[in-house]
Amino acid sequence: MGVGILAALLFAGSVAPASAIGTGRGHTQEPEAACSTAPTGKTIEQKINGRPYLLFVPAGLSGPAPLIVALHGGRSNPTTFEKQTGWTDFASSHKVIVAYPRGSKNEGENQWAWEFARNTGPDVGFLRQVVADIRARHCVARNRIHFVGHSNGGQMTSRMACDAADLIASAAVWAGPKGAWDKNDCPASRPIAFGVMLNDNDPVVWQAVAEQHRDLWREMNGCTTEHGESGPGVVRGQRFDCAAGTKVVYRLYDGPDDATKAHVWPPNPRGADVRNRMWQLFDANRLP
Questions:
Q1: Which run of H or E residues covers position 238?
Q2: Cβ count near 23 (within 10 Å)
Q3: Of the ranges 15-19, 99-103, 282-286, which one carries the lowest mean pLDDT score?
Q4: Which of 60, 63, 218, 220 has its CA 20 to 30 Å from the CA of residue 190?
Q5: In this model, does residue 16 exceed pLDDT 80?
């Protein structure tokens, strides 16, 4: 399959199936008036103008906490993505609030995707509303709002980093192509730290596509010096120092023997390593 055909498929919404590192707890600011630290107990559904998102607030918050907004892949949904990624358990142990919004594009029974093209569709505005809704109800550290995406949700994460850098501290994707064609299509108001990770035998998002995404953020951030990274199953690990003090991270993992499973968000222990590395990036790169 050519890269042009691949890009067209991903534009329409790519198919999505099915020990903590980092010490930052995110309690860096005084609570706002009426700021609630009450836990949800379990993941609950909230709605904005009839459109849902799932929300989990862990027990034990003592003040404003980081917020991770996790975006499912194409032809998926928040419930499936929550089960795949393990972010809720991570949020419980790390005292992080996590939200799982739903894409706007209906692609079948309980299958949704994101409209990531610039100035197209309602999704940028909706995701801003999701963050505002959570901040109105719960204690969120304003400098600790991070986005994570998978596949087509990775494209939407990239678009949010381009269009909402005033809101997002840092972001990362698993098997996510870029959501902007080039620097001119990405009007980010400031440099923003970004991570791109995938398996080396991903049949949907090829390495060259992921490297294009990595290089977009290297250009956006003015990155120069490269450092190697290692980790369980990491075939190629890179960390780039950038002009404004941000980082760009790229991790290529040794994919599963069954290549049909290489595109999905990885199960543990690989999934734990991905979450932990993303969290390290987030913890070190907060909104100025």
A1: strand 234-242
A2: 9
A3: 15-19
A4: 63
A5: no
Q: Rounded to an integer, what is the distance from CA 241 to the centroid of its chain?
A: 20
pLDDT tens sequence across 32-49: 545 899 999 999 999 999
Report CA Rg, the chain. Answer: 17
Q: How many Å separate Cα 182 from the centre of its chain?
A: 20
In which order are the strands placed within the sheet that holds 44-48? 44-48, 51-56, 97-101, 65-71, 140-150, 170-174, 193-199, 247-253, 234-242, 223-228
Q: Find out whether 242 and 224 touch, Cβ atoms under 8 Å.
A: yes
- Diameter of the chain by CA atoms? 54
Domain map (residue ranges) of the chain? 44-191+205-213+264-284
Q: Mean pLDDT over all residues of the chain? A: 90
Of 8-17, 125-134, 144-153, which gets the smallest average pLDDT? 8-17
CA 278 to mean position of chain CA atoms: 9
Give the CATH fold of the 44-191+205-213+264-284 domain: Rossmann fold (3.40.50)
The residue count of the chain comes to 288
Rounded to whole angstroms, how far apart are CA atoms 209 and 38?
42
Q: Is the four-CA dihedral 182, 150, 98, 86 of positive or negative sign? A: negative
Q: Which residue has the tokens 């620097």?
A: 183
Q: Which residues contact 85 (CB under 8 A, 6 or more apart)?
A: 70, 148, 150, 265, 271, 275
Q: Exposed/middle/buried for 207, CB within 10 Å: 0-12, 13-18, 19+?
A: middle
